[in-house]
Amino acid sequence: MYKRVRLKDTVEVPPEELGDVSPDLVKRLLQDKLEGRMDEEVGSVVSVTEVHDIGEGTVLPNRPGVYYEADFDAVTFDPQMQEVVDGTVVEVVEFGAFVGIGPVDGLLHVSQISDEYLAFDGENQQLASNESSQTLGVDDAVRTRIVTKSIDERNPRDSKIGLTAKQPGLGKHGWLEDEHERQEAAAGE
Hints:
Blueprint: E1 2-13, H1 23-34, E2 38-39, E3 43-54, E4 58-59, E5 66-77, E6 84-93, E7 96-101, E8 104-109, E9 118-121, E10 126-129, E11 135-137, E12 141-150, E13 160-164, E14 171-172, H2 173-188
């Protein structure tokens, strides 16, 4: 999911900054240019961490700045199909829950949460079971698996990631703890 990668990119240094083309300046310009952007090869750039090398500047006709190619390290977020991820419910709607997993949210559809029927409780912003006391609401920690992904490179916040919690070991953390305690109690009898 999160990776540290070595990348190469070109950054434009504006004329007023040309007196001090330093790694710190290039890092700041790369952060402004790349952080929060999606790249098909490496995923979403979360942070530019260190600039290693700055090439010779190039001047382009009719452009005020000077362009420098830089080698740098970055932390990226690239969710993989079938990856198990922990996240936090950020919104509950009638058709499911949106789970924050890194810089994007995934949809945990109501049909993928539990084998029990979960009804939407808009007043309390939660999904609640009529069969048991299970509820899923905002700020609940959940463990899910990524089952679909459609990444929008132009606007990463519009990326669509589908999640499931209907497999052993997945679900709301409280439910998983309760299940573990039941299994330990049954084993002790």
